[in-house]
Amino acid sequence: MLGFGSKMMSQLSAGQVICLTGDLGAGKTTLARGMIQSVLGSIDVPSPTYTLVQTYECPDFELWHCDMYRLEKPEDGYELGLIDAFDEALCLVEWPDKLGSLIPEEALHVDIAFEGEGRKLTLRGFKNIT
Ligand SMILES: Nc1ncnc2c1ncn2[C@@H]1O[C@H](COP(=O)(O)OP(=O)(O)OP(=O)(O)O)[C@@H](O)[C@H]1O
Ligand SMILES: [Mg+2]
Questions:
Q1: CB within 6 Å of ligand 1 — which residues?
Q2: Helix (H) or strand (E) holding 17
Q3: pLDDT score of 129 more than 80
Q4: Which pLDDT score is estimated for 10?
Q5: Is 108 helix (H, G, I), strand (E, B) or coil?
Q6: Where residue 130 falls among pLDDT bands split at 50, 70, 90?
Q7: pLDDT single digits (tens) 98-108
Q8: Count of domains in the chain?
Q9: Is position 130 within any domain?
Q10: How many Å lie between the centroid of ligand 1 and the Cα of residue 31?
Q11: Whose CA is nearest to atom 30 of ligand 1?
Q12: What CATH number is attached to the domain comprising 24?
């Protein structure tokens, strides 16, 4: 999962929104960690479950790692500054459904499902990743 995150990261840049969906414990944070560490090295990447947002300074852009699980209503996303971030930063969003229509239509999607001991990833909107 960490390695796949690194592959995904190679075709992403500022202004893109990546929605990470899947059940509790599916591996959304683990995938985001792989993406972030592929750019910034083996830094600590905590789950944003309680902070809702963690930001990282990457060389070419700012990266926002968001976990909307505890968001009470979509409008609370405005206060977090998400609208500007969706335009300007690379945003990885766990539990994007909590934001309702605030999620841009052109967002990319990764759905993670349990499959035996492993995981099955379904991508929407990406160019081919091999
Ligand atoms: N192939 C795999 N990919 C990702 N995680 C895996 C895999 N196999 C086992 N795991 C384990 O599953 C757990 C996934 O936890 P993670 O916090 O990434 O899930 P999450 O989808 O972010 O959950 P939450 O909905 O609580 O935010 C970790 O403990 C991880 O070690
Ligand atoms: Mg998580």
A1: 1, 22, 24-30, 47, 67, 94, 118-119
A2: strand 17-22
A3: no
A4: 87
A5: strand
A6: low
A7: 999 999 999 99
A8: 1
A9: no
A10: 8
A11: 27
A12: 3.40.50.300
Q: Looking at the whole model, is its pTM more than 0.85?
A: yes
Q: Residue 77's domain spans which residues?
A: 2-124
Beta-carbon contacts of residue 43 (< 8 Å; ≥ 6 apart): 36, 37, 56
- Flag whether pLDDT at 125 surpasses 70: yes
Domain-located, residue 120:
yes
Shortest-distance atom of ligand 1 to CA 117: 8
Region for residue 117 given its phi and psi (left: phi exceeds 0; alpha: psi -120 to 50; beta: otherwise):
alpha
| DSSP string for residues in 18-75 | EEEEESTTSSHHHHHHHHHHHHH-S-----TTTTSEEEEE-SSSEEEEEEGGG-SSTT
Q: Is residue 25 in a domain?
A: yes
